[in-house]
Amino acid sequence: MEHGSPLVGNWEEAEMWNYEVKEPVHNLDNYLYAIDCEIGDMAAVPAHTTYTNTYQCVFDTNTSYSSAFASSLSGVGGSAYEPTYSSTSEDMSVTKTYDSMGLSFTGAQYTDDWCLGGSDVHITVCLPNQRFVYVTKENFPSNNKNKAQWKPPLASFNDVTAIIGLGTQPLADSDSWNFINSAFEQGYIAADMYTFQGVYDDPEYAHVTIGGYNYQDMAGDIEWYNMTYTEGWRVNITNMTIDGDINLMTAPTPETEHYLGAGDVDEIISYGHFNSGYPFIGVDQNVGDMVETDLQFFRPDISCKYDATWNPWNICYYSEACKTSDMPGNLTFAFGTSATFNLPVSDLMIDYTVSSQELCGIGI
Hints:
Blueprint (H helix, E strand, L loop, with lengths): L10 H4 L6 E8 L3 E8 L14 E7 L6 E3 L20 E11 L2 E14 L8 E14 L6 H12 L3 E6 L13 H7 L8 E5 L7 E5 L23 E3 L2 E4 L3 E2 L23 E3 L11 H11 L20 E3 L11 E5 L5 E5 L4 E6 L2 E6 L2
Parallel strand pairs: 3-8, 4-7
Antiparallel strand pairs: 1-2, 1-10, 2-3, 2-6, 4-8, 5-6, 6-7, 9-10, 11-14, 12-13, 12-16, 15-19, 16-17, 18-19
């Protein structure tokens, strides 16, 4: 059907290439990737009620469950989605509990219209009747580290109250929860694929391409990995070293270095889990102990110990503003092929402040 003017939310209008849509993504203080989004409409908002159905939605590749947080949920700031205010929402009368990176949430299963792109006709795309969880309960104790790590983004970014799930499909569900997979199943995109593109030295701006990728965005070769046999978007790590000679995957001998269970294993089994909803390089306690020891060669005062006030993310940090000269080392990764990826530790530095004290975090 022809129309005289562009239609907001129409996938064809928003296509940059054939069956592909390129969406601007905001980097929130180097912590999370989010996009302008709308959930439902405002046709049922009561008179004299202040409400908006526009939010910042966080992309999370760790879970397939798209979610909207209720205003009653502890720690949620700003406006929150209210299903009774939307004429297009439908309560499916099903309770759903799901886990994500040590977090556990419970809520009611709903459907409503979800739109990405902030109403700009050139980028906005919509999925009608998208399934999601209207989260009303957290299932972890108040002193849980994972909860402490989740709270800062919710408290700091007032309108981050929804998650766009991009994880693999739960086997127990017959219908798709994954936003990209839903778009593919409904014929809006040609490939069940998405691509994140970060912009070097510009943390405020990035893109996600829905439906594929474009070679013009690539500065070098592409290394492909088979993800079909794994649980989630993850691959085995076959090499992980720091400063070129410290192997973070080989268990230290118990006589010389601390390692949990070192007498029982010769190698730390590790995998790379690509998760857009987690901003750091996450390692287990054993690897973390070795990383802390190595970083202390450069900064003896650095600590990687959890602290609810000074270090709620459980990363490595020290009490001073960041200087790249403090961290000259490199992390090197390989994921089962001959390709290696080098990451300067200085690129993981994050300045933050607690009670007027300048701190430097290392995102590990």
